Amino acid sequence: MKMMYQIRRTNQSRFGKSFFKILTIFLLIAGFILTVSFFEPAHSFISDALSPLFRSGNFFYASLGKIPDLFSDENKIIEENTRLLSEIENLRLNIVDYDSLKYENQRLREELKIRPIGKVVSASVIAKFPQVPLDSLFIDRGTEDGINKGDLVLAGDRILIGRIAEVFRNKATVALNSFAGTVSFGSMARTDEPIEIKGAGGGNIEAKVPIDFDIVVGDKIILKDSLNYQAATVGVVEEDSSAGFKDILMSLPVDIYKINTVFIKAYINE
């Protein structure tokens, strides 16, 4: 059996309908524009309705205009911080310089108070025990400053603490009066009796004198030069009746660990 199908005709006028729709929308828009143009109330209504959007747009554009200023201000802040940091560093260096000058000024004042009479060379102590052997010092002056082996080393106007034991171009080693084996010839300050003293090490100086030798605790031993310098102070006197001697134990006139400046003077034996 044959089936019969009815062919449905399609609408071929789609372009015509679309054209009329577009025309209608265009006419409505034109009429709206004419209405707004001729009627002030409608224009005012639209302006009022859109004014919040306009204000928002104005704020947005104004904010965009300020962005370059923000970057400019940030650059200024960075430059200012850099300048302030530089000034702080300069102030820190000035403080360091000031403290250094203050210390040097104080040291010079102290040096002037204790500076011996006559021609001397001042020197700074750059090493003490345990950096150097016991009963010795290392100072920052040498042959370039006119220092020679055997020169006297003073800790004050009349305080003799040792002699130059070894000298270099700009450094020297001081052997203190207490250096083991160091022998000095002096006299008693109270009686003017001659006495030989010998370094015993460890800050000690010793002597052996006849049992009838006039010496007591507290006596000062001096070295006679063009001036008299104190070289030791008697601390202990022990009698050995069977041997007929007195054993004398002495110490340096000053606390060597508190000394930072010494004075070197050429020795003149008179």
Question: What do you see in this structure?
Answer:
By secondary structure, the chain is of the alpha+beta class. The chain has 2 domains: 16-114; 121-265, Rod shape-determining protein MreC, domain 1 (Thrombin, subunit H, Beta Barrel), CATH 2.40.10.340. It contains 2 helices and 12 strands, in the order H-H-E-E-E-E-E-E-E-E-E-E-E-E. Helix 1 packs across helix 2 (40-114). The longest helix is centred in the N-terminal third of the chain and has 75 residues, at 40-114. It starts with 13 loop residues before the first helix and ends in a 5-residue tail after the last strand.
Task: Describe how the helices and strands are arranged.
Layout: H1 14-38, H2 40-114, E1 121-127, E2 136-139, E3 152-154, E4 160-167, E5 172-176, E6 183-188, E7 194-201, E8 204-210, E9 220-224, E10 228-240, E11 245-251, E12 261-265
Antiparallel strand pairs: 1-2, 1-12, 2-5, 3-4, 3-12, 4-5, 6-7, 6-9, 7-8, 8-11, 9-10, 10-11
Helix pairs in contact: 1-2
